[in-house]
Every structure is written in C-alpha cells, then in structure tokens.
Amino acid sequence: MTNSPKDVVSSLWNALAARDWAAVGDLIAEDGIYYDAPIGPVAAARGPAHVVARLRLALEPLASYTNYDGRMVGEGDTVMYEHSERWEWPTGETVVLPFVSVHRVDGAKVSLWADYWDYRTLLDGAPQGWQESLAGADMSWIYDATGQV
Length: 149
What we know:
By secondary structure, the protein is of the alpha+beta class. It has helices spanning 5-17, 21-26, 48-59, 119-125, 130-133, and strands at 28-36, 44-46, 64-68, 72-75, 78-88, 94-106, 109-116, 142-143.
C-alpha cells in the first residue's frame, strides 16, 4: 500500500467507521489538529490522544455510526472528502449529517482535519437534552487553534 494523501485519508475514515480508536490515533500527526468548523478552532483537539478523545466524545455513545462514502479529491498534501454520517442514539433518534472534511497530510499522518457540517441538522436529530449532556464531559482535550488553521 502506498502512503499517498488519499490513501492515508481513506485509512483514517475506514478506521473511524469501525470506531477503531487506536488505528485513528495512529494516523494523526503528533501535533495534528482536528476541529469542527461550525464550532471553530477555539475548541480544536491537538495530537493523537486528544483528537481521539474528541471523536470518542461524540461517537462512542452512539448505538450505531455509519459513514456513507462520497467523493474524495486530492491535490498535493490536501484531500477533500464529501460524505455523510448516520448517527443513531440508544434512544432511537437518528440523523444523517452531510459533511465535507478537509485534511492536510504530511508523510503518512493527518496534520490538519477540519469537518464542515450543519450544526442545526445535528441538533434537530439528536435526543432531547443531548447537547446539555455533553456539558459534564471531560473537555481536557480542548486546544485553541485560532491562528493555526
């Protein structure tokens, strides 16, 4: 297998779809930054352990998580991936979120990952009180990447 940027990003998304947290972490650069564009870089995560902690916060409690593959376009070290995700909570609520994910790959690691999606779509599909339930979660992963992304 080559380590082209598109191959690295494909491996990352395959690992995330399987919720294989160790494999996801292995694909993030030591100083790699992940953030959700609707929230902004003020609440980013930096480094493999913190990126995984951030992703687990959202995805681990779900009863089911499915990534629907879409177009992937790469130029140089940048890969853009248009896809959608289906989230299902244990209480039965579901939402399908359209995404565009932008990645920068250095070597065989993702050094920057930005997810673009609609916050309102998520909130409209989530269970009542879901957003408030996150308030008590461990947020030690938060990194302010303002000016770095």
